[in-house]
## 1
Amino acid sequence: MKKIAIIALTALFIGTSFTSCREKKEEMSESEEIIQEMKEDGADIKIKDDGDKIKMETEDKEVKIKVDDDGDVKIKTDDNS
């Protein structure tokens, strides 16, 4: 009986440690998605203030991403059509 309890606790411990070490897939934020999309479109990307202001331009589209002091993200999109 003691052997079964030890085996069960060991299996539980190993199972828990493997589950907690599993990598979680992170979802991209809206700004990260826009940056990725603009890179794929071949946009001219300018970064100011250590990444607090990002300006991206293509022939058809202009996007500005700004992070203010509170951590709020503001995204402005202009279509040049």
## 2
Amino acid sequence: MANSHTKHHSDQDMGKNKFDVAGAEFSVDAGSPLPEGYGDNRLVILTRDPFWFFAYWEITHDRAEQIRVAHGRDSWDATVLILRVHDLGESSRTPIDSASYFDVEVQKMSRQWYVQVPVSGHVYVADLGLRWPDGKFVSLFRSNVIRQPVGRVSDQIDSKWMSVGVVSEEWDEMARMAIGAGGSKGASGESSNGMALRWEFLRSVFSGSVSSWAPKEPKS
């Protein structure tokens, strides 16, 4: 009994040691770290769901300096950073100047933001820019155009479904090829009967009589 008990614990210890990686040495090449920026002034917006999109951007030092030169050295301190979202409605051809918009204030140190839109299914485009206390707005750059998915069940009800014109004899021939005439090698009577039932169901579906279909009792 003692030997058996000792052997049992020895087997358990061996099993545990197989998955013990505490003393193992690993070397993972993480590669070079990602840069803080790519030197590309741009704003990109991506659809997340019908009522939200994701925006990310990069403002280079050169672009920031251009704003300071054009609008004053205190431009960045006297303003707030804004995502101005233009709602183009259902058409991407709507002139942006005539479209409604709303502003989302974002943190100046941030480079990404989630934006909630009021209407699903509409086309949106955004400007990233600075807004002064008096309402003045200067766009740094404009995003791509996106169309949000419609957040409801489709109202299209005039779809036309393809009809499959397969006559009864062709269904019978396909069934015979699938299950074999009188059974196939290695196939049991039960599996052959199951295949036959499937083909009978498919034939009833494409002939428009699925509601009246019922599996037939196997012959004794």
